[in-house]
Write a structure and sequence with these properties.
Hypothetical Protein Ta1238, Chain: A; 4% strand; mainly alpha; 5 helices
Length: 165
C-alpha cells in the first residue's frame, strides 16, 4: 500500500505533523485555496497559447497560492512561505493595466467560456478570503499580507474577466 491510501478517520495531518479535524476552519480554507488553484489552472489552459504573459502571470499566482497553503499547513512555523509584499504589488500593477478601459460595475458572467471560468475563479478567491478571515479570528496569522493578496487577486480576476468579455 502506498502513502496515499489511508483509512478515513475524519482527521488530516498538516505539514507540521499536527492532526486536525477535516472540519477545522483552516482545512476549509486550504480546500478553498486548492479549489481556486485548480480553477486558475483551467483558466490558464483555456487562455490562448499566444498570451504567454497572462499564462505566466497566472502560473505565478498558482505558485503563490501553494506557498500560502504550505504556510497555513505548517501552522505558521515556516517563514520561507511568508509573502514579502512584492506579490501584492505585482497583482496591483496587473490589475491597474487591465482596468484602464473597463466599467466599474458588476458584470454578468457568460459572455464566453473563458470569461465565465475567470468569474468562477474570482468567486472562489472571495470565498477563500472569507475563510482566511475566519481562520485569522480563531488564531491570528503572523502574515496579514495573505488576506490583502486574496483581496487583490479577486480584483485582478474581475479585471481579467472584463478583458475576455
Amino acid at each position: 500500500m502506498n502513502g496515499i491510501n489511508t483509512e478515513y478517520s475524519g482527521m488530516t495531518m498538516r505539514l507540521s505533523g499536527q492532526k486536525v479535524s477535516k472540519n477545522d476552519i483552516s482545512i476549509h480554507f486550504e480546500g478553498a485555496a486548492d479549489e481556486l488553484n485548480a480553477h486558475l489552472g483551467l483558466v490558464k489552459a483555456m487562455i490562448l497559447k499566444e498570451d504567454t504573459q497572462t499564462r505566466q502571470f497566472i502560473e505565478k499566482i498558482q505558485s503563490n497560492l501553494v506557498k500560502l497553503m504550505a504556510y497555513m499547513s505548517s501552522d505558521g512555523q515556516n517563514d520561507e512561505y511568508l509573502f514579502t509584499g512584492d506579490e501584492i504589488a505585482a497583482l496591483e500593477r496587473e490589475t491597474v493595466k487591465l482596468s484602464e478601459n473597463i466599467p466599474q460595475c458588476f458584470q454578468l458572467p457568460g459572455a464566453n467560456v473563458v470569461e465565465a471560468q475567470i468569474h468562477v475563479a474570482r468567486t472562489v478567491a472571495r470565498r477563500a478570503e472569507r475563510l482566511l478571515a475566519a481562520v485569522n479570528e480563531k488564531q491570528p496569522l503572523s502574515c496579514p499580507k495573505f488576506g490583502a493578496y486574496l483581496n487583490e487577486l479577486s480584483n485582478y480576476l474581475f479585471a481579467l474577466a472584463a478583458k475576455y468579455n
